[in-house]
Amino acid sequence: MRHLAESYKDSTVLVTGHTGFKGAWLCGWLGRLGAKVVGVSLPPDSDLAQEALFAPPVACAHAIDLRDADATRRVLAEERPELIFHFAAQSLVRRSHAVPLETFAVNVMATANLLEAARSVSGLKGVVVATTDKVYRNDERGRPFTETDPLGDGAPYNASKVCTEMVAETWRDSFLRTQGIGVAVVRAGNVIGGGDWAADRLVPDLVKAFLAGQPAMLRNPTATRPWQHVLDALQAYLLLGQRLLVGDGLASAAWNVGPDPDGHVTVLELARCLQESWPGAALTVQGDGGPAEAGQLCLDSGKLRAAFGFSPRLNLARSVEATAAWYGAVLRDGRPAIDMTLRQIDAYMTGDNP
């Protein structure tokens, strides 16, 4: 990972959604790489979310809503980042059915505001925009999606992310490219790891049930997803950000980020794997009448592997073990969350198992 440190050291990097799950982990890693990290985020949804992960180690933080175009422009003008990671989003599939207008406003217009503000930032080299594997038009055949497959799934969350990609492509091709600013769009699979407390997500729901000594409910046990540890996913984000920092135009495109084939398993298989790492845990299968979700979802990350040498380091078993170790150390043993997070980052950076 030495090449990452060489690129990020002393660089000013702005992370939107820095108090969220992936954003907080990324801030921790960027800090370890010697970057000056600027956070932009709304307050966390709950005290538990902030307490159970950690206060992300940033040089400064701005509590603004990216739907406010003037506030967004002021922050970027003040901080003048060299690179932006855009994670801020309404990222919950089920919530998108309850608040579709909010989902589109947060995911689409906030992205447009950010990219428009980026046009005026002197010295900016690139923006990495996080979307999702759910942008693909899913025919349920289980074939791994590649970046050339058609987009356009109709669920509110999925559609909002397709629109996010259209905004990113428009600003990239119409405005930012001529200014030497690249835009990489990352379609990541299902990310797991310590400190995720989002509602209606599998691992947080399992951990909450296990801690309470209650059976964990599986709504869609046969659904297949591309499961990957947060550190493997962030390795890809950082790799693409590094290429943008050095002006590599090839990185300014859309990229799949998923696990090796062993990470494409069903919800039930993932849950049983976590159950094995949590003595006394119990599972139950029970539908809850929620909105239908895709049954088969697989990703092909061959493009990123071929272009920049991306390779996931953690298989499914190790990803689950690291996740269970984080939650167990923090919630059962009382270890400070930031200590456990940075310990796992350090181990990953040195090639050890986190």
UniProtKB/TrEMBL annotation:
<comment type="pathway">
    <text>Bacterial outer membrane biogenesis; LPS O-antigen biosynthesis.</text>
</comment>
<dbReference type="InterPro" id="IPR013445">
    <property type="entry name" value="CDP_4_6_deHydtase"/>
</dbReference>
<dbReference type="InterPro" id="IPR036291">
    <property type="entry name" value="NAD(P)-bd_dom_sf"/>
</dbReference>
<protein>
    <recommendedName>
        <fullName>NAD-dependent epimerase/dehydratase domain-containing protein</fullName>
    </recommendedName>
</protein>
<feature type="domain" description="NAD-dependent epimerase/dehydratase">
    <location>
        <begin position="13"/>
        <end position="243"/>
    </location>
</feature>
<comment type="similarity">
    <text>Belongs to the NAD(P)-dependent epimerase/dehydratase family.</text>
</comment>
<dbReference type="Pfam" id="PF01370">
    <property type="entry name" value="Epimerase"/>
</dbReference>
<dbReference type="InterPro" id="IPR001509">
    <property type="entry name" value="Epimerase_deHydtase"/>
</dbReference>
